[in-house]
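Supplementary Methods. Inverse-folding protocol.

Structures were first reduced to a discrete structure-token string of length 215. This string, shown here, constituted the complete conditioning input.
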């Protein structure tokens, strides 16, 4: 009941913005509960964990018409598995990765939807493409027959003060508008309200729905 209330409250707060329920470390029972409560998109950030869950969830997700997204760093040796599972891969950050995803999608006759992950804070330890490399990557991705680029995603530098994320979200919105894309995925539990104010149309919420993680 608690999860149902949280989903309802969250949906009321965000309006037309798409809600992605981040299910990392959550059990199959918790994931089904969040879907029954109204979640239409769930996301995982580790291929190995997602694979174990997908065995039990594949038919259920199809039956409930729920999208499955990948939001973590995608290693080249896990691409085949990712393409076999996910409706949208939100973390494409290089041409090499895009080409390999395209190749794997072509092998199974699938059009794979993707977002480009942008390292908006230019943090060395984070994945994501730098702003100056975006035009070239977009141009090359558009040449790939089995990829469809829907938009961009970011994780801004962490701060206890959500307001610190605002300039990064504002910069993302400028990029989004420049390329007239469909999805602007930004904002998590601590800063989603700021992200929405700055133009996000997709937020990724884990703790705000499920409570603190158990990992």
């Amino acid at each position: 009941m608690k999860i149902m209330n949280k989903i309802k409250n969250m949906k009321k707060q965000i309006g037309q913005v798409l809600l992605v329920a981040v299910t990392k470390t959550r059990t199959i029972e918790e994931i089904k509960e969040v879907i029954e409560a109204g979640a239409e998109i769930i996301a995982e950030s580790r291929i190995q964990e997602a694979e174990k869950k997908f065995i039990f969830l594949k038919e259920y997700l199809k039956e409930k018409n729920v999208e499955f997204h990948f939001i973590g760093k995608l290693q080249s040796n896990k691409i085949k598995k990712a393409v076999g599972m996910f409706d949208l891969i939100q973390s494409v950050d290089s041409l090499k990765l895009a080409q390999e995803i395209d190749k794997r999608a072509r092998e199974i006759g699938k059009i794979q939807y993707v977002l480009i992950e942008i390292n908006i804070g230019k943090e060395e330890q984070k994945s994501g493409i730098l702003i100056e490399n975006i035009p070239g990557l977009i141009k090359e991705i558009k040449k790939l027959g089995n990829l469809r680029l829907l938009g961009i995603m970011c994780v801004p530098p962490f701060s206890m003060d959500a307001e610190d994320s605002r300039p990064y979200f504002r910069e993302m919105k400028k990029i989004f508008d420049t390329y007239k894309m469909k999805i602007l995925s930004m904002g998590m539990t601590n800063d989603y309200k700021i992200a929405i104010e700055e133009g996000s149309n997709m937020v990724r919420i884990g703790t705000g729905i499920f409570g603190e993680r158990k990992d």
